Every structure is written in structure tokens, then in C-alpha cells.
Amino acid sequence: MFGLIPKEEKFFVLFKDMTRNINEGALLLKDMLDNFTDPQGSQRKIKDVEHKGDSITHEIIQKLNKSFVTPLDREDIYALSGALDDILDLIDASAQRVVMYNVEKPTPEAKELAFIILKSCQTLEKGVSLLGGKLEHISECCVEVNALENEADRVCREAVSRLFDEEKDPIQLIKWKEIYETLERATDKCEDAANILESVVVKNA
């Protein structure tokens, strides 16, 4: 039945644009923490990507309001666009905190979390690219994103634990705890998007 319903394919194109843009933001964040030569410049670039993401989200919502027939349930389109937008917001928030708190040097754990964010975003892009095609392979991507979120949880927990064990400066402890938790929340949002994709597969299989 899914194949017989008239589809507005533009939604799939917009979702692909959105995940491609999110990947660009995740790559910029990883590069920011790996190289750390110009954090302010990196943060500005991430902010530009975040603005572009807002524009794509706005376009999806506008199209949703004007479309009589949609390729997926309206609430799924709305929820997925919101979840994807949240990922980019958290990537931007992470970069902002690094600059705002005048971080001298990123920690290995922060770099690892940025790597997990990028892997999660790449996996989501792969899953979203399958919308409108063979839905069964989307589930594999969702399982991988869930596993990456669990890994980010572990890294964040260990990083915060080490902070409380080793950091003597309470201000530094507060700063880094918030940076770690903001990075980890970005992977939570990736998992949220993956869960919505999983529900789309169940509904339309």
C-alpha cells in the first residue's frame, strides 16, 4: 500500500539536505576539537550551518502545511524534522560552550564524543537516504545509532567521574561537566531521530 500512495518526493529531498547539513556541522565540530587552531572561527562556521538547518526545517514545515497528500504520516514528518533540527542545535551549543568557557585545550573525552556524534550523524544520513526506497535497511542504521548513543553515555559518565576525581578547580569542573553533557545530549537527539525512523519503518513496512 505504501508504494501506491501518491507521494510528495520533495520531503525526502529536504530530509536528505537536512542530514547532509547536520553532517557538515558534526564534521566542523570534530575538526574544531581535533585541531583547535581557531575555535572562534569554527564556532562561527557551525552557527552558519545551524542557520541553514533552521531554514530547511522551516521549508519542511511550510511544505507540510501546504501538502494534501504526504509520503509519511504528517506527525512523523514533523517529529523527524524537529529531532534532526535538535541535533544541530546541540552541536552548535557544544561549540558555543567551548568558546564561551575559554577552553585552553580539548580533552581526549571531548574529542571522542565529537567523533561519536559524527558517526551517529553519518549513520542517520544513511538511514534517511533510504526513505522512499527499501525501508528494511533503515532498521540497521537505527540499531547502530542506538549503539553509538550507549557508547557516548559510557564516555560521558567516565569523563565526568574522572573530572570529580582529578579536577581541583571547581570552575573548570563545572565548565567541563557541562561541555561533556551537552556533547552527550547531541547523541541523545540522534537516538531520538533514529527512533522516529524506526517507527516509520514499522508503520510502512
UniProtKB/TrEMBL annotation:
Q: Which SUPFAM superfamilies does this entry report, sorted A to Z? A: PhoU-like
Q: Which domain of life is it from?
A: Bacteria
As for family, the record states: Belongs to the UPF0111 family.
Q: What is this protein called?
A: DUF47 domain-containing protein
